Write the structure tokens for this entry.
Amino acid sequence: MEQRSARHGNALVAAGLAVIAVTYGLARYGYGLYLPEFRAAFGLSSGTAGVIAAGSYAGYCGAAVLAGRLVGSGRARAALWCAGAVAALGCLLVAAAWSGPVLAAGALLAGSGAGAATPATVAAVARTVPATGVPRAQGVVNSGTGAGVVAGGLLVLSVPGAWRWAWVGFAAAALAATAWADRSARWGGGDGPVPGVGPEEEEARVRLARPLVAAVLAGAGCAGVWTFGRDLLADDGGLPDRLTGLLWCVLGAAGLLGGISGVLVVRVGVRAAWIATVAAAAAGTGVLGVSAGSPVRAALSLALFGAAFVALSGVLLAWGAARAPGTAASAAASLFIGLTVGQAVGAVLLGRVADATSAPVAFTAAAGVLLLAAGAAERRPRIRRPAGLPGPLGQRTGARRPMV
């Protein structure tokens, strides 16, 4: 029985990783990947491009709230299909876009799928994977963002300019990954609510105030690379499409290394891990802004940013779970929404800064915001560590283990 459960868990982890890869790495961050093509096709300014990206991030937040309610009411399977179907619909709309407004609508829907994907996969893993393997499984699934970014970069390398067909492929992949995850999950009778969503949420929101501010600031700073990174390389750096696609692969591949965030938190604690990862993202952003024309320096800065972004996301989840262990799933959703709200605001403001000054100046501003986010770390965080997870000194407590 245990072997069968482990096999089901492994299949679900692979399928969940695929769902995150498509909804995040392709449908959501694919907008930034193909921004040079979109700007050429629809005559978008940096400011307009930022507004469209903000719409995608806003859609993410709305979908995350809806999916959280579906999961909380025992309809996690519906949330999973909401993620896949909405992402697929948005990708098809982007592929068929004949004007800027249609592109904006498609990007909004495509980005929304990711918002529903996280609560759905958290619930699926919690119900399918043996309890002792849940934290590790959630970390592996979360690393799917990097895999999707690599896949997008490889597409640009292999079929440059064929962005419409690429987005049709994204839509097909979204539906296929969703069906795979649905078949692999053990939803159980009644598809009951996921642990960690309960009446303690109001108290948890108060305890999450500081990490939420840090998440918003970090999101605003990270919007620079995710929204305008490839556009900077192509326009200001003058690099060819194939090379920028390869550099995007470097960004995604480095993101796969961000799974070390759990080890980092255990070894040095939440505060030090947050400062280190956010400062690294700031360094990568700032260096990229002044090195867009140098392939080697651009590759190094993108690698640093990619690993730091995924790691800071993991640290943020650990921070939320430590502050609100009784509502870990809803805490994760709240902080990811905060991160995305920051990305939406950052995309708009950085686009306007780029229009008014230059893209390198906007990237310098983004790095400055990230440094502010690093400074938002608690001096002495009052950690409420979940059960089964070792603290910096190896101690364990009796609280509930988080699904992160």
About this structure: Residues 189-198, 381-404 have pLDDT under 50 and may be disordered. The CA atoms of residues 61 and 226 lie 17 Å apart. Residues 100-128 form the longest helix (29 residues).
